[in-house]
Amino acid sequence: MIIRKLFKFEGSHIVRNCSSQRCRENIHGHSYKVEVFIEADQLDRGYMVMDFCRLDKVKEFIESFDHSYSLWTEENPDFKSFIYRYNRRVAEIPVSPSAEGYALLFFYGIDQILRHTPRINGESEVRLHSVRVHETDTGHAEAFREDLQLVKFKIEDIRFSEGVTEDWKSAEWWEKLL
Ligand SMILES: [Zn+2]
Question: Does 80 fall in a domain?
Fold first, then answer.
């Protein structure tokens, strides 16, 4: 069975090297929707794949991008220092922040979070099925497990500024992933 949980964030970025001049040369934002699909062969004692309340760390991870600038690590140093200088909330990420980049990054991060989420209610082998990222109402990108072959980074290559981490209830969940 598959369950799906929707998360939302307001994010800003530049997508370098894309075909559209507007997108590759201007800081701009989108109202993102992130659909997380989780599957299991068995149900837990509450007849659920996994209680949504157990996804609190997934929510914290995705909300770290809310009202944040998603800064590609490959940006030039002048631009990076400008962003850090005038923005409190920055998510520095090892992929370009296209919908595809986010889908891959979120799949990778959420997969790690789920691996570190203890099974406490008789859940079976709970697996992340896919992550779908909508940048607009009309288009989305979806990452599946086989797309992990595109991952050339580690969790420590995702860095959140203090303006992000100070809003976390606790940093313990993130430190466990590192
Ligand atoms: Zn955009």
Answer: yes
Lookup: tokens for 25: 């040369």
Indicate if 74 belongs to the active site. Answer: no
pLDDT at 123: 83
**Domain enclosing residue 19, as ranges:** 2-172
Q: Is 67 a catalytic residue?
A: yes
> What's the whole-model pTM score?
0.97
- Identified catalytic residue from 23, 35, 63, 75: 23
Kindly report, residue by residue over 136-155, the tens digit of the pLDDT. Answer: 999 999 999 999 999 999 99
Q: How many domains does the chain have?
A: 1
Q: Return the CATH number at 92.
A: 3.30.479.10
Given the residues 30, 67, 129, 140, select the one marked as catalytic. Answer: 67
User: CA 133, 6, 59, 175: dihedral to nearest 10 degrees?
Assistant: -50
**Does residue 135 carry a catalytic annotation?**
yes
